[in-house]
Design a protein that fits this description.
Elements (H helix, E strand, L loop, with lengths): L20 H20 L6 H8 L1 H13 L10 H26 L11 H18 L4 H11 L1 H19 L9 H29 L12 E2 L2 E2 L8 H11 L1
Antiparallel strand pairs: 1-2
Helix pairs in contact: 1-2, 1-3, 1-4, 1-7, 2-8, 3-4, 5-6, 5-7, 5-8, 6-8, 7-8, 8-9
Length: 244
């Protein structure tokens, strides 16, 4: 076979369990380690992102091994293409399995250090209750949060960073990736922005002349429509709130 294209392969006939066994075992362990932290802090929406950010080296190892030692019949495909084509076929089901494990876990209440986000949200709620009485604008409310809830925000970021770093040290790349740090910052930012949107809506109730920034959910049949806009709805609602 002198040349093989990805579309010419009958992937259903390949016994995937026979290839990259050691690498897949390492990847599975990494996924489970990351999953434990995600579950602890109830970060379900960011599950896949944290798995991929923390296990980049393990995923590359799977792709590399598949490139070097491919299943029979793929010898004519370039090493790079073999890894790129077959890698997702191994990794995708493993990510799906992690998601299913999360779904199967019973909901549990956080305790101790695992409650850092609850503490941060509580600080925000207390500040909102005070500022709504004074009719502060959303921008002023946000500025107050950055000052009054700075300690709880720092604690949340530090705890999540330390927890992920603790399991990252057990992986091929022992240091937190820039992507993981960005995701941690993103979780905290999302909590803050959601609170500002909620605060802005509460202002509408006590100041009827104010404009609501909530974007109605558009339904396509029985499901929510997929927006082609690159800007998430929550981001647009936040930007509207701080400008209103």
């Amino acid at each position: 076979m002198s040349s093989v294209a990805a579309k010419d392969i009958d992937y259903d006939k390949i016994d995937y369990s026979q290839f990259a066994q050691s690498e897949r075992k390492s990847l599975a362990k990494c996924f489970l380690d990351m999953l434990a932290v995600v579950q602890r802090h109830k970060l379900r929406n960011e599950l896949t992102d944290f798995l991929e950010a923390g296990c980049q080296a393990e995923m590359r190892a799977v792709e590399s091994e598949l490139g070097r030692h491919p299943p029979p019949g793929l010898d004519g495909m370039s090493e790079e293409l073999r890894g790129r084509v077959l890698g997702p076929m191994f990794i995708g089901p493993m990510e799906t399995a992690a998601i299913e494990i999360y779904k199967d876990q019973k909901a549990s209440f956080c305790t101790g250090d695992a409650c850092v986000f609850d503490a941060y949200r509580k600080c925000i709620m207390l500040q909102a209750a005070d500022d709504i009485v004074r009719r502060l604008k959303p921008t002023e409310f946000e500025n107050q949060l950055k000052v009054k809830c700075k300690v709880s925000e720092i604690a949340a970021r530090a705890t999540l960073t330390n927890d992920f770093l603790g399991v990252q040290r057990l992986q091929r790349e022992p240091e937190l990736s820039e992507k993981t740090r960005e995701l941690i910052d993103g979780v905290i930012k999302e909590i803050r922005q959601a609170s500002i949107i909620s605060y802005a809506e509460d202002l509408v109730k006590v100041q009827p002349g104010r404009k609501s920034c909530k974007i109605p959910i558009e339904m396509c049949g029985k499901t929510e429509c997929i927006s082609l806009d690159d800007v998430p709805k929550s981001q647009r609602e936040y930007e509207c709130a701080i400008q209103n």
